[in-house]
Specification:
Blueprint: H1 20-30, H2 38-50, H3 72-82, H4 86-94, E1 98-102, H5 110-113, E2 114-120, E3 123-130, E4 133-138, E5 143-147, E6 167-174, E7 179-188, E8 191-192, H6 198-209, E9 225-228, E10 232-233, H7 236-244, E11 251-258, E12 266-274, E13 296-302, E14 307-309, E15 317-320, H8 323-328, E16 336-341, E17 346-349, E18 352-355, E19 358-363, H9 374-385, H10 390-412
Parallel strand pairs: 1-12, 7-9
Antiparallel strand pairs: 2-10, 2-11, 3-4, 3-6, 4-5, 6-7, 7-8, 11-12, 13-14, 13-16, 14-15, 16-19, 17-18
Helix pairs in contact: 2-3
Length: 413
């Protein structure tokens, strides 16, 4: 992992190919407006995680009334969530986790403003402990595991405080060692961390986890082990550690968190994922047979008017289907469709990707309930042509350090 060769007197700059930085700046400016009702969102989410609609295939008894507390707004939100069915329910759960954009440009001030960790390979899920039980739910809302744990109020043994007190963790379940690796913390003992900075949340993950036996080996009252991922400053040393050091889990790329970012449901440019062949087995998307196709594939959602959109908010339109083709192919609004993309039909305009022609491949099965994001499509395109390399990230960090040193020298003068 040797640093790239470049003139040390000139700050490193890689030509920007996306508008990610504009979205990052905007997200930081507007996140304070989303602080309202953070506690209500957390409590309604806790209730929804425990109590799916009665039509769900994994029916559970309704949560006790005290799960709502005395807040009528919380009860109203939870009641509305309980009425959701099928795709609507799965879509709601899919939007509860903070999802990273794919890094196509190295952020400025990477060393100063960002954390980095090696992302575990596995199943992304929300884990909630309350009322003597622990439940993990996948992004589509289905239950992965129902088990006792050493998390607060996560088993019938040793319940402390109100029985309805809950904790919600953002985890990746790593099947080879049956461990839940914690990548973020949303709530702890009923205290919401939605409007706390990532730097504070990571501090709490490490400090609060040691207060419990959640990191202990499995036992009768603790079915799965929990472990916090090692989080580093995105300095040269931290980046090298996340990229090169061995981990107890299989790596699937690097995760970057802006230190000042709050926990935001859905896709955010303040969290980024990056991959290459060294730190991930799966850099390029595969087809239904597990093979990397000759042409890039994208997954888009079909709308009522025939438009094909990404999962971004707001979504980006990549094309459309005429009504005759939709009817002939027995397609419906909300279907996720796979398309192939020819290189010659792709253009980059003002940091965004435009696709001139989409070739229909087929409809996806129901196990997936979200389309690709724009950043993922752009990352996949770049990975086939001129990907962002680890050397680029190192050079960006070194350039940041040079700029800081230069500023310090000017101030001393």
């Amino acid at each position: 992992m040797a640093p790239p060769q470049h003139d040390p007197r000139r700050p490193y700059k890689r030509a920007a190919i996306s508008d990610q930085q504009r979205r990052r700046d905007s997200a930081l400016r507007t996140q304070s407006a989303r602080r309202a009702d953070a506690q209500a969102r957390a409590r309604s989410l806790a209730n929804s995680l425990l109590s799916p609609p009665s039509s769900s295939s994994d029916d559970q008894p309704p949560a006790s009334p005290e799960a709502h507390g005395d807040d009528p707004a919380v009860a109203e939100v939870a009641a509305a969530a309980a009425k959701l069915r099928g795709p609507d329910q799965r879509r709601r759960f899919a939007r509860q986790i903070m999802l990273p954009e794919w890094m196509v440009d190295a952020p400025p001030h990477l060393a100063r403003d960002w954390h980095v960790c090696a992302r575990p390979a596995g199943k992304r899920c929300l884990v909630m402990s309350s009322n003597g039980i622990t439940i993990s739910r996948l992004r589509n809302g289905t239950i992965l595991h129902r088990f006792p744990s050493a998390l607060p109020n996560g088993s019938k043994r040793g319940i402390s405080g109100p029985a309805s007190s809950y904790s919600i963790l953002d985890c990746i379940f790593h099947e080879p060692d049956e461990t839940y690796y914690i990548v973020d913390m949303i709530c702890w003992r009923g205290y919401s961390l939605y409007d706390c900075t990532a730097e504070f949340r990571f501090f709490w993950v490490n400090s609060k986890l040691t207060e419990t036996a959640a990191g202990d080996p499995p036992s009768t009252y603790h079915r799965y082990r929990f472990s916090a991922v090692s989080m580093y400053e995105s300095t040269l040393e931290g980046l090298q550690a996340a990229y090169s050091l061995s981990t107890p889990y299989v790596k699937d790329g690097l995760l970057f968190y802006n230190k000042h970012a709050h926990y935001q449901s859905g896709i955010t440019p303040l969290t980024l994922v990056w991959k290459d062949e060294t730190c991930s087995q799966y850099v390029l998307d595969t087809d239904s047979e597990g093979q990397v196709p000759t042409e890039q594939h994208v997954v888009l959602e079909l709308q009522e008017d025939g438009k094909l959109i990404t999962s971004d908010d707001p979504p980006i339109v990549f094309g459309s289907l005429n009504s005759e083709f939709v009817q002939k192919s027995n397609l419906r609004p909300g279907n996720l469709l796979r398309f192939s993309v020819r290189d010659e039909s792709v253009k980059l305009v003002d940091g965004k990707m435009e696709i001139g022609e989409l070739q229909f491949v087929g409809k996806l099965n129901r196990s997936r309930n979200f389309a690709d994001s724009h950043s993922k499509v752009l990352f996949q395109y770049a990975a086939r042509h001129a990907s962002l390399r680890i050397e680029d990230l190192i050079a960006s960090v070194q350039s940041n350090s040079m700029e800081v040193e230069s500023t310090d020298i000017e101030m001393q003068d």
